[in-house]
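Shipment paperwork, digital attachment
Item: protein structure file
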Amino acid sequence: MKIVYLFTHDIVKHAGVTKKVLSQTQAWKNLGNKVKICNISLKKKQIPLSSFSKKDVYFRESIFYGAKFLFKDISEFKPDIIYFRFEPYKPYVGKILKKYKTIAELNTDDYSEMRLNAKKSLIRKIRFLYYLITRNKIYKNIDGFVTVTDEIANLPHILKWEKPSISIPNSINIIKYPILKKKSKSKIPHVLFIGTPNHPWHGIDKILDLAIRTENKLFFHIVGMDKRNYLTLSNVKFYGHLTKDKYQEIVTLCQIGIGSLAFHRLGINEACPLKIREYLTYGLPIIIGYSDTAFVTSKLPEWVLELPNESNNISNNVDLILKFCKKMKNRIIHHDEIKNYIDSNILERKKLVFFKKIIDG
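Attachment content:
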């Protein structure tokens, strides 16, 4: 198959998306397919820092005309299918979706997420209104959906289109991630959180509450957040935004990884964040506050602590969290234990079978 991966993306800030795209496309190539990445970027100064090659990155000139050479390059590639990472409608995207068979990747309940963000500012409210007016222009030209959770696939505004769909959780190419965890002589477990500012579903406020309740019992390393915006606590260290090589240095200091704790704020119960998968490849046991798609059909491994997806999931479970951290402090997760859950070379094969069905009609 010939596949175009189409998406708009800040090629510096959102490293997780970059890693996911590279992992997916490499798996498709490994399985004998031809792939063209079309990353629509807004800031030319970012290109020296990109993990994509120059031929993969198109700088958007307008929401109407897209980017120079974008349509020409896609036409010359002659794709069998467009794999589109879903985003709000733009005229140039609509033009592409009308011309080619397209599968949309849905990573979240876009409606709930944008509605929540609309409460933060006037400009976000305007964006939400634009999204509501134009969203059907995207959905009507989609031939199938790949959702990262069953929960997303069963949302009423997805089901109403009666399009073919498949649920495949986010995956990661585990061989590209070294096991970084080492047995520690520290008296207390060190916990790692890597996140993005202004994402209330991360539950950073809950992590700080846990830190207050576990002073002298746990130490927290928080990457991606600026300490100026939060309480100063003796057992919390903020690092701000770090590149991969820099935050891998922080990983070596930690024994446990903690994921999002407040998906209930979005009305979401099931998720599969990439960051959690990265923690696992580094050898870290994990604490999560939701049901991860990778584990919903099997018994939870001992190295996963799943807290209830509710507002008081930290305050009600401090002792349970402490017990887990102490038990897992020197437990190193090996790649053989996680590959069937999160390895892209295994999970992406299922996705390609779905692509073929859509192409064949």
